[in-house]
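Technical annex, item 7. During the second reporting period the consortium partners agreed on a shared format for inverse folding records so that results from different sites could be compared directly. Each record opens with the tokenized structure and is followed by the designed sequence. A conforming record, contributed by the partner at site C, is shown below for reference.
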């Protein structure tokens, strides 16, 4: 190749190294990423996962995918993207995992859990089915489980489906091991009831107890798939901070399908930055970022 095509990111990183040449740069910056490559990435992640990747995510794409080039021993993004486009199963999964943003915490947006507890307390002994659409590394479904186990007189009918498109975070969720400082928002009595503190080499970590793990089923699910591996309907659906990554057309299509799997008196919880004015024929607001089916 004649010369070396350098991205703006490479140039900015180079200026931070006194050597001034590419020999002083980290391995992650040895692969040129062209505008055409970036456009292919945006098209692929939209088709595969429905994610509308903003033009300003160039640096994020570079840093996350360069790792995959090193793992696969490839020399260019063009080679790498060809693998994904040809349907390489391992790389297609890794591609989605790399570009999926997972931001979560225990009892995030606590008003949803208060509302869930109030509704559950009124259900008596009826079974409860709950879906966490983007469970990430498990903090949300385990928060749901803690809330439900505390609120229900008889938790034997509790069933929580926790799904995500990212297989890496699902593996972490199934492990159920978290640094102690990540449990800061978990009330002390819940920490004592539902977590075991690590000792020795596991000092500084906590593992979820079987009581908390038992009602939760983790499963990979792509919200864009034509058929969801779901049977029956849900009383509560948590789909929080998911729609912000989709365009309006994709949002509407997914919300129509969620409406079909939500019980008539069920609740849909969404993120605080999400608004669904364009789906008013499907849902109506019934609380802070909480919706129920219309009509």
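Designed sequence (site C submission):
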């Amino acid at each position: 190749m004649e010369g070396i095509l350098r991205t703006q990111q490479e140039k900015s990183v180079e200026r931070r190294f006194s050597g001034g040449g590419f020999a002083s740069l980290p391995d992650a910056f040895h692969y040129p990423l062209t505008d055409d490559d970036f456009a292919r990435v945006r098209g692929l992640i939209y088709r595969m996962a429905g994610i509308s990747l903003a033009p300003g995510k160039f640096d994020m794409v570079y840093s996350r995918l360069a790792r995959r080039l090193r793992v696969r021993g490839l020399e260019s993004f063009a080679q790498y993207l060809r693998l994904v486009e040809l349907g390489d199963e391992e790389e297609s999964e890794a591609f989605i995992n790399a570009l999926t943003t997972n931001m979560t915490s225990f009892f995030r947006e606590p008003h949803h859990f208060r509302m869930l507890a109030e509704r559950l307390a009124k259900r008596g002994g009826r079974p409860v089915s709950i879906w966490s659409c983007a469970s990430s590394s498990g903090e949300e479904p385990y928060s749901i489980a803690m809330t439900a186990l505390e609120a229900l007189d008889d938790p034997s009918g509790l069933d929580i489906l926790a799904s995500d498109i990212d297989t890496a975070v699902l593996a972490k969720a199934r492990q159920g091991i978290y640094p102690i400082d990540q449990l800061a928002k978990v009330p002390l009595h819940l920490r004592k009831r539902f977590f075991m503190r690590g000792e020795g080499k596991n000092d500084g970590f906590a593992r979820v107890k079987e009581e908390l793990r038992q009602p939760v089923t983790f499963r990979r699910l792509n919200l864009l798939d034509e058929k969801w591996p779901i049977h029956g309907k849900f009383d509560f659906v948590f789909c929080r901070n998911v729609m912000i990554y989709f365009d309006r057309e994709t949002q509407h299509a997914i919300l129509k399908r969620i409406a079909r799997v939500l019980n008539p008196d069920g609740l849909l919880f969404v993120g605080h930055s999400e608004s669904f004015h364009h789906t008013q024929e499907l849902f109506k607001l019934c609380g802070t970022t909480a919706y129920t089916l219309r009509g």
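The CA atoms of residues 83 and 91 lie 7 Å apart. The longest strand covers residues 262-269. All partners now use this format for quarterly exchanges.
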